[in-house]
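Obj: model holo form, ligand = FE2/S2 (inorganic) cluster.
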Amino acid sequence: MSSSFEFTSENQDRFSQILSRYPYKRAAMLPTLHLAHQQNGYISPEVEQYVAGLLEVSLVDVREILTFYTLFFQRPMGRHHIRLCKSISCWIRKADRIEEYLVERLGVASGEITKNGNFSWEAVPDCLGACELAPMMQLDKDYHGPLTPDKVDQILEVVSDSDSKV
Ligand code: FES
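Output (holo structure tokens):
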């Protein structure tokens, strides 16, 4: 079956480099998915199929990895994605207040994308492993906390400013 997704020529080179580090193709599943995720913004069924073909594994093998690792989006998200921790330490330190503020500030509910496509966010029940920052959130790859509504504003403004300079 044909797939409508394929790596850019730059990413094909990166994929070749990834493959060269592993003894067999299947072992390169995670970095290959990360590369595809980076290029496409999420793992669509077409991407799943493409990766399965590249690595000569079944779609079920790819889906097993996708359902285990929650960092892979399986639908489009904002250009920047926020994960607000709602686990115990963050909850005790008023993550609820930050959650309410994100709804107000971004104007969308958890799991949705802002109108301009810049941000999406979600409240996550699992500890993100940075309790010392509670209440905290992950914005793309970076952790931020302890959060207050003002601090959330500052963080979002810095990201928006850097986007406008691109
Ligand atoms: S409870 Fe939020 S980072 Fe651990």
